[in-house]
């Protein structure tokens, strides 16, 4: 659909230079995960899921944007098309809730799917890679990155909203756990 294609281009322009793990490739993986969950669960409005996934990191609170800034940017993008106002409001609500995901409950099924899709990208091989990229960017040492696995990543599986995401999370977590176990073995020094 041409609206989705254009939104992708717009988001690509805006996230091109991000080095914090919220880059365009992350957005596209979240988009792919969200569609995968939608295809299996067969629930929610596909267009709202697609738009919310594509826009979910457009103006993250980490970079000082607030709910209102995010609303403005999303309106700027979506008002170029004839999309029902009600749908746009739903997308804004989802992106705003997910941006402050720490603690906020996402109400709509579309929001739940996008939140799961975002969390899946913090798990598995890609989750490991992102943790080390992010850790490096804030000058963490190895132990601090390992701590992040226990503080956050190993908790995500049980916080998934949908059954489909929980299943994918199980496989990804297993791999991540094996990795941490092996890493522990390799870095242990008994001299
Ligand atoms: P969200 O996708 O909800 O915006 P974050 O911005 O918290 O999540 O994290 C983005 C990525 O960076 C994730 O893959 C996460 O595991 C990683 N990350 C976040 N904080 C840390 C940290 N302190 N150390 C290592 N990796 C981190
Ligand atoms: Ni994200």
UniProtKB/TrEMBL annotation:
Gene3D superfamilies: 1.20.58.1910, HD-domain/PDEase-like. InterPro entries: HD/PDEase_dom, HD_domain. Residues 23-123 form the HD domain. This is HD domain-containing protein. Coiled coil: none annotated.
